[in-house]
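I am writing to request your help with a piece of structural work I have in hand. A protein sequence and the structure tokens that stand for its backbone fold form the material at issue. Please examine both parts with care and let me know of anything in them that strikes you as inconsistent. The record follows directly beneath this note.
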Amino acid sequence: MILIDTGARAHELPARGDHVDPSALAEATGWVLKPEGLCRGEVCRPLLGRSVADADGWIDVAAWADALGLLVVSDPAYDVVAVVPSAAEHAALDGRAPALELADVDGRPVSFDDLSGKKRVLVTWASWCGCRHELGAWQELQDELADLGLGIFTVALDDDPEAARPWIEAAGVRIPVAVDTGFVTAERYGITNVPSVVWVDEEDRIVKPPSIAPGDDQFRDWTGIDAAVHHDALRAWVRDGALPATEAPPARTDDEQRALAERRVAHWLFENGDEQAARAHLETARALAPWDWTIRRGGLAMEGEDTFLGDRFLAFWQEWEDAGRPGYGAT
């Protein structure tokens, strides 16, 4: 069985039908079955009478996931399974910034957590968005506010690092630039469109949830958003601690969470050469989360479609416009 974990990492596990080897599962995920429940480090989830293993100790993946509050998406033909936190697990973070350890375009580890203890901003972009041209603007803002204690961390939501590489190299920036091929950032921080930003304070609390914030005004006629509004608010927060009025984002739903798992299965299938099966999972993801641009537009990029002037994108854009631009909150 191939298990795609909550960090979008794929693990090949010995399996007997729907059950997997407990040692291999523990090595892949850190969760160990003990008398007190499923434990990882000092954290244990009691099973409360539920059984997750057969007589030989092999773990039923569906029961294991349920005990941990995870949702499961699978492709039986390939015996590939993806798990993501349920909406309730996502909500349990209660405003704390989730851990985010990724890789740069060359595969070297980079971590948003390295900026913990200071005001920090998470900036998401993608090669399939005009915001691919805006890295330089974020570097300028970092240069302006670095001495006041701000750290800016950028993440490209792209299925292939090579898609992001030309824009990273052209910008020549010094701020961290990660490439998130599993869209872990989107899941953990509730990102549904780019360019989105999240503000995190010195105590690792999310003080400004995801909102649309272009780095500059290159595409203002298209987006209808003035970059200066966000940047001036950011300056006020960094200098004086003043936070703009914000609305809490809608609570994530299990369908939205499952959509991201479907997307990960689709990505795995594309990588392993079955485009037809991959497209089927993408269509399921689109149906589950119809206004999630990381799936709708990002999925078009995965399929090799034109994400700027292609017919499918323009049809989606019009559908979204007619619906009142759902999910497109600016600062």
Observations:
- The first helix runs from residue 22 to 29.
- The chain has a mean pLDDT of 97.
- Residues 93-331 form a domain with the Glutaredoxin fold (CATH 3.40.30.10).
